[in-house]
Please model this.
Amino acid sequence: MRGEEPPRQLVEAGRIAAMARDYGERLVKPGESCRRICEEIENYIRSMGAQPAFPCNISINEVAAHYTPGLRDDCVIPESGVVKIDVGAAVEGYIADTAVSVALDDKHRPLVEAAFEALQAVMRVIKPGMRLYDIGKTIELIIKKMGFKPVRNLSGHSIDRYTIHAGLTIPNYADRAAWLRRLSPGLTVAIEPFVTNGRGLVVEQRIVNIYAYRGKNPRTPLTSIEEKILSTVKERFKTLPFTPRWLVDVADADTLESSIASLAAKGALHAYPVLVEAGRGIVAQAEHTFYVARDRVYVVTSREQ
Ligand code: MN
Ligand code: MN
Model:
């Protein structure tokens, strides 16, 4: 069993991720380039002495998660709807993951409130030993009370060093599969209610701008440029997710796109496709990273403690 306090690197990662999230929230304005916002947030994290733990995600309206601007595509903040800013900071591989939603108009404020309130409700009841089922139930109750649906196939997760999605899943609804699992001391977990006025499910799109090294090389032979890209990925990001935008010094856009797609097809890289709400409902999200000590649970990405 670990000690009482979260590791100092995690505390530092949490402090930086929280500041980057709040900084990013202020950059969201209709007409702004998503690429500019993401790059500002990523550079802010670097300037604070951490590494972006994954590319800044900026997912708009029915896009629920895993969108970051690609080498060629970009988006612009629309006049209305909901923008999710999801950021991560890593210090020596200790990762903090946090997100906020911005309502661009009054009509979408209740959806954003529901995600925020669901996370607040968890923060009020969370304690060591709690069933993951009860976390999901708390989230679902608040979201339904506010007239929306949780997104059932998006969930929180445990975090290990250099691993953003470790073994455990923290459901956003009363999932019987999570009945036996509990918050054990020493765990770092991200809890992230996703709320929608759509079907309550996400589906994968074909667009992929986020990848991660799988931790071992494939048996299939690699071309020399694939070798070069893969060794750069390992050296720069280890197993943390990255985006082709972070490799523009290694090869030109065409080469990067085809080589990275090939590395994913050969099993060297894990791909994170963009996730969209199945009924094209609008999605809001709120997220904090928590550290489970023996006697209490710390919120490492909150700015009020
Ligand atoms: Mn996140
Ligand atoms: Mn997360």
Remarks:
- Residues 97, 157, 190, 192, 287 surround manganese (II) ion (ligand 2) (CB under 6 Å).
- The mean pLDDT is 96.
